[in-house]
Amino acid sequence: MKIINEDLASLKKLVQTKTQQLTDQNVVTAVQRIITNVIENGDTALKDYGQQFDGVAVDQFKLDQATIDAAYDNLDPDVKAALLLAKRNITSFHEKEKATGFVDAEQPGVLRGQKFLPLNRVGLYVPGGTAAYPSTILMSALPAKIAGVNEVVMVTPPQTDGINPAVLAAAKIAGVDAVYQVGGAQAIAALAYGTESIPQVDKIIGPGNVFVATAKKQVFGQVAIDMVAGPSEIGIIADDSANPRELAADLLSQAEHDKLVRPILITNSAKLAQAVSDNVDSQLKVLPRTEIATASVTNKGFIAVVDQVEDMFDLMNTVAPEHLEIQLPNPTQYLNLIKNAGSVFLGRYASEPLGDYVAGPNHILPTSGTARFSSPLGVYDFVKRTSFVQYTKTALQKEAQAITTLARVEGLEGHARAIESRFDTYYD
Q1: Which of 94, 246, 256, 323 is catalytic?
Q2: Whole-model pTM?
Q3: Are 3-20+230-360 and 25-225 in the same CATH fold?
Q4: Which residues bind NAD(+) (predicted)?
Q5: What is the C-alpha to C-alpha distance for residues 337 and 317, in angstroms, rounded to an integer?
Q6: Where does 3-20+230-360 sit in CATH, by number?
Q7: In the annotation, is 291 catalytic?
Q8: Pairwise pLDDT comparison (218 vs 207), residue with the higher score
């Protein structure tokens, strides 16, 4: 793993270099056609695409409850126990995110306030085959249920041998209300516009391939979406008190996801930097997903050596990593130095995979440096805010002139007359 010794300004310039996100016009055009076809032909289009793309003839999209129950009942006990533990921790964490709104009656004759309303129906996209992650189903559906969403529906590509039992069991554990066998851009279109079998939703969440991501972009506005996910990052801040073997393992835990993942270590110890680099090289040789992880480490990863602890955090805030580990003594004392990060892991025993599975905070996080302005998925993503106001006649009279003045400045005479009609002046 390459080690970089440069001044702070040069390092900042390096980490600010973004991965260029090129738009494949062929994909854009293909997705547009798919969405239009689903809008016009509904279930017929979905069946055709299921046969064309997945090689599966689907007669009934909605999976029967008996199949889901059987997957749960027959699941390996250790897997079931792990999923139930994850559910407990995810639920206990996200319960604390619930908002209650407010009422303001401080001004005489004026009542103002805000209330939170859950979305009615949310669609969860789950990739098929080896890319199916039961833990992500829990991270997606549980906050929605805690928020009070009335119905959570899940779509996933049909499989010749049936849908992954762990996926179905996770759906049952998370309280998913219905599972539909449909995948790809056509599934996103079905969720956004509805078909004879699949209900229209208010928001679509979940990862997918380039066709799914492109479809989510195209239906945004018709429905809400969670995010357009890009390459992930793991950033580690460490000094010479950290264990280089553990740091290398943590870097590779993310590098094995995707060739575009950025594994980054920032340290003030040249000795640690070399030891971690050596450990990464040796561990890559025995990692099952070595091809993916090697590409990530070689093309996107690096170790930066700086002088001061403050510089370590300054540089990492520029990275704005999806995952950030603080491997320093007494790590909580540095929380105030963290400005941009999706999720933070404090100390030796808070390795990043802890957050992927059982700790409780959500693992659906802002990627590609978007932690500068975005937040992890949470209960607040499944509610909308509605404000309300009530004035007495006396209270409105006190502010009427200001309202009519501003309305006429903006050339909106009807606005002004709507206020004046409550008092002495009325326009027929």
Answers
A1: 323
A2: 0.91
A3: yes
A4: 125, 186, 209
A5: 9
A6: 3.40.50.1980
A7: no
A8: 218
